Amino acid sequence: MQEKDLLNYEQSYQPDDDFNDKETNLIENDNFKNNNDNNVNNFIDEEMIEPELMFICKEDKEATSLLKKCAKFFNEENFTTMKEYLNEIIDNNSSMEGKINAKSFIKFFYLGVCNFKLKSYQEALNNFLEAHKIYQHYQLNYNIALCYIKLGNLENAVFYLEDVTKKNKHFFFAYYNLIKIYLKKNNINDAFLIYRDFSDIIKKEKEKEKLSQQSGLPNQNRLSVTSFNTLKLFYKIGAECLFAKQLYQECVYTLLEALKFNSEDAELWFLYAKVFVMKKNFEYAIPLLKKALEIEPDYEEAYKLLKFLEENKD
Predict the structure, then answer these.
(1) Which of 21, 164, 232, 274 would bridge with 261, disulfide CB 3.0–4.6 Å?
(2) How far is it, in rounded angstroms, from Cα 64 to Cα 67?
(3) Which pLDDT score, from 0 to 100, does residue 213 have?
(4) How many domains does the chain have?
């Protein structure tokens, strides 16, 4: 079967009216239904930092110089050298006459970045928390949350991620990781609500972009939630949420959108197959599993499910 035919499954197979509600035909396996696969652990941490801290320096020439040096180290991915350089800087008091000690903030902030990139997550957390005492910024809170995720403290991670979404509603990666945490904890309702919240944000931003295009004005939102990478991840995490929520018809539509952004994602084809397995429409699931294995031959979960289906065709 050709890939274009697979992408048209939504047209060739229309779920019955009670597709989202009836559980009598479903495979009785909670782990399978709730999508607790290894991909639930795939948190996003490559967007750890996007330096935008010049505002904190104001007229502090030392802080401005330090920020520029750190940004250079960061862009060169020279984290070991940056860590050595920062550790040589003598730290002053965290506050000076009621003003923010920008130099100390930048030092601890970038020490945290270095240690995170070097996989020293506890050290990174300690650095970020020191920076947090000096000045609180949503990006810093996001980095703190990532450290807690790496250290396995998901409760604290949720606290800081929720704070990020309150301070910057367009920070997609905070929403994404919140959804991942709730799916991992099998808290499906909260995961679904966060997905819906961000879905509303994307719809509003798309409307704004359409108006901007009609008026000839450029989109001024630097952190665009309608970027290619954001939408690619959004549709994938949305499909995972909808599957866990057992909203299978909507899950199919969302998967089709996700596959438009990345048709070479084996996890998407596997999830697509699982939708049909849940209704025991195995003849639809088998070619989708084969597609997943074509992309990723060592995909163990897909191989096991395909073998099971082929052994139990009749």
Answers:
(1) 232
(2) 5
(3) 66
(4) 1
